[in-house]
Amino acid sequence: MTTLGTRLFTYLRGREVGRDSAGNRYFVERRPRRGAAARRWVIYRGEAEASAVPPEWHAWLHFTTDEKLPEAKRRPWQKPHLANLTGSAAGYRPPGHDYAGGVRAAATGDYEAWAPEPAPAAPRGR
Q1: pLDDT at 14
Q2: CA-to-CA distance for 29 and 15, rounded, in angstroms?
Q3: Which end of the chain has less neighbouring CB within 10 Å, N or C?
Q4: What integer pLDDT is reported at residue 126 of this predicted model?
Q5: Using CB atoms within 10 A of its CB, is residue 125 exposed (0-12), middle (13-18) or buried (19+)?
Q6: Overall pTM > 0.85
Q7: Is the pLDDT of residue 19 over 70?
Q8: Residue 25: pLDDT band by 50, 70, 90 thresholds?
Q9: Distance (Å, rounded) from C-alpha 51 to C-alpha 84?
Q10: CA–CA separation, 75 vs 82, rounded Å?
Q11: 90 - beta bridge partners?
């Protein structure tokens, strides 16, 4: 969800340069200010979450490259880019987490706590 100001600025001064596989749209300023680089920004599809920007577009947004990078050719073992879900309802919660009921499986008994051995007593001098 973009603000009214962002939508208005985009309509008046922006030019769309591309979209990513998640549906985010990327814009550049049509006429940059004198002596300044053209502004670049993204309008997210859905909730605004910076980690939803794939690496191919991150480099362009942050002026690492001037050319937008093509969608990276993925290897069969690579997973698609996912936004960071930490802190959201879809984030990972280990067994025993309070939100997951607060009950974890009983220990298997193969764990033994470490305790340091006491230091040997120093010999007494005569």
Answers
A1: 92
A2: 6
A3: C
A4: 62
A5: exposed
A6: no
A7: yes
A8: very high
A9: 6
A10: 16
A11: none
pLDDT at site 94:
79
40-43 and 25-29 strand pairing = antiparallel
Structure tokens at 103: 């009950």
Q: Cα 83–84–87 angle (5° rounding)?
A: 135
Cα 7 to the center of its chain, rounded Å: 24
Q: Which residue has the tokens 């749209």?
A: 25
Reported as a pLDDT band with limits 50, 70 and 90, residue 15 is very high
Structure confidence at residue 40 (pLDDT): 93
- The pLDDT-based confidence of 71 (bands split at 50, 70, 90) is low
Rounded Cα–Cα distance for residues 84 and 58 (Å): 15
Question: For the chain, what is the radius of gyration of the CA atoms?
Answer: 27
Return the structure tokens found at 83.
Answer: 């936004």
**Amino acid present at 90:** A
- Which residue type sits at 123? P
- The label of the residue with tokens 């794939």 reads 54
13, 29 contact by CB (below 8 A): yes
Query: Of 15, 82, 17, 87, nearest to 55 (Cα)?
Result: 82
